[in-house]
Amino acid sequence: MRNKRVVVGMSGGVDSAVAALLLKRQGFEVVGLFMKNWEDDDTEDGYCPAKQDFMDVLAVADKIGIEVEAVNFAREYRERVFALFLREYQAGRTPNPDVLCNSEIKFKAFLDHAIALGADKIATGHYARVRERAGLFELLKAEDGSKDQSYFLHRLNQAQLSRTLFPLGEIYKREVRVIACEAGLPVHAKKDSTGICFIGERPFREFLSRYLPKQPGDMETPEGKVVGRHDGLAYHTIGQRQGLGIGGQGEPWFVAGKDMARNVLIVVQGHDHPALFREGLVASDLFWVSGHAPHTDWVYGAKIRYRQADAPCCIHRVDRESCEIDFAQPQWAVTPGQSVVVYESEVCLGGGVIQNMVDP
Questions:
Q1: Quick check: is 197 catalytic?
Q2: ∠ CA 116-120-122 to the nearest 5 degrees?
Q3: Residue 315: pLDDT over 80
Q4: Which 3 state secondary structure label does DSSP give 72?
Q5: Tens-digit pLDDT profile for residues 184-226
Q6: 312 lies in the same domain as 245
Q7: Residue of 48, 101, 313, 348 marked catalytic
Q8: Helix (H) or strand (E) segment spanning residue 83
Q9: What's the Cα-to-Cα distance from 35 to each of 9, 57, 321, 338, rounded to whole Å?
Q10: Are residues 173 and 255 in the same domain?
Q11: Is 48 a catalytic residue?
Q12: CA nearest to 28, candidates 59, 64, 53, 62
């Protein structure tokens, strides 16, 4: 009887390297798959060094003793992720492409390719867990709460979760580095990647201006006082402090809203200005991991951004199109376009895309 074949998505980082190592030690037949999702990543600026990442994957695979394949999903990424990314910014919202990349590329295009390679399961270096209970697959938070990535995985469905392993779900990041070092993996001290893959470390506004032209307009206070100028609403997000260029005395300025009709950026002074807080939100493009919407009379926890503590909330008026979420305490910088993700204790129930804020 052959060992089960697991195809591991390997990025060139320490997390996916250790995921592959652990599966090999558990007796699986492990195959590494390096995904190239962006075509402009090996240009002169070197912001997204895919070539070096692939070389690191090959070095790790050689050390572990597994085969590796490279596959190009750039076309799928542009069509399924990047096109929506640009449309959302153009509409004045702030999308989260990592959420869509996971559901459309890493657990769809990648999963389909892995199955074609004869995979019984796929695996990644994400910090999350999967639990099967009464025939239902649940997405759980990682044991290491500071690294939990279930927020980015909340759009995975039952078929995807049933085929997925998260080898790092039960261990802490500090242990991952120790395992990699003791095993002699060449990436044991490699710095974790940050930011969106197709932007890399370059200034965000500089990248976005390649695709969305500048549309200058006024910055106004909620009372209508003009305090500055902006280059385009698409370049700003709710809660933003840096890069506004507003001088003067007093507390720092923050983006509190966008008036798309007038091309005006609404700004306020002070982190705790009332205009930055909302008691609730309306979300659409809903996705529930179990396939069923949660009850509307229970108290859940919700995140409106990654690394936020779960905020107690209730869900109201759930239908196929949208739902309303009310928070026990007003939330800071609720941002249209971002994902709101709902939890019941350690179980990630799913979520949706924030469309509107509910005023206090």
A1: yes
A2: 85
A3: yes
A4: strand
A5: 999 998 888 766 666 666 677 888 888 999 999 999 999 999 9
A6: no
A7: 101
A8: helix 83-90
A9: 7, 11, 33, 25
A10: no
A11: no
A12: 64
291 within 8 A of 298, measured Cβ to Cβ: no
In total, how many domains does the chain have? 3
What tokens appear for 330 in the block?
Answer: 């007003």
What is the span of the domain harbouring residue 263? 213-271
> Is 78 inside a domain boundary?
yes
Which tokens sit at 38? 């962006």
Tell me the C-alpha distance between 268 and 264, whole Å: 13
Out of 48, 181, 197, 323, pick the active-site residue: 197
Closest CA to 174 of 158, 160, 192: 192
* Residue pointed to by tokens 């309306």: 282
Identify which of 124, 125, 123, 126 has the alpha carbon closest to the alpha carbon of residue 151: 126
Report pTM.
0.92
pLDDT tens digit sequence for 97-108: 999 999 999 999
Q: Is beta strand 121-123 parallel, antiparallel or unpaired with respect to 67-72? A: unpaired
Backbone angles phi, psi at 71, to 5 degrees: -135, 145
Cβ-contact 328, 312 below 8 angstroms:
yes
Question: In sequence order, which residues have a C-beta less than 8 Å from that of residue 182 and are 6 or more positions away?
Answer: none
- At 219, the amino acid letter reads M
Q: Where are the beta strands (DSSP E) in 45-110?
A: 67-72
Distance CA 110, CA 117 (A): 11
Fill in the amino acid letter for 17: A
Could you give the CA distance from residue 232 to residue 216 in angstroms, rounded to a whole number?
5
CATH code for the domain of 231:
2.30.30.280
Residue with tokens 């959302």: 88
Q: Are 354 and 340 in contact (CB under 8 A)?
A: yes
249: nearest Cα among 265, 270, 276, 266: 270
Helix H or strand E segment including 334? none
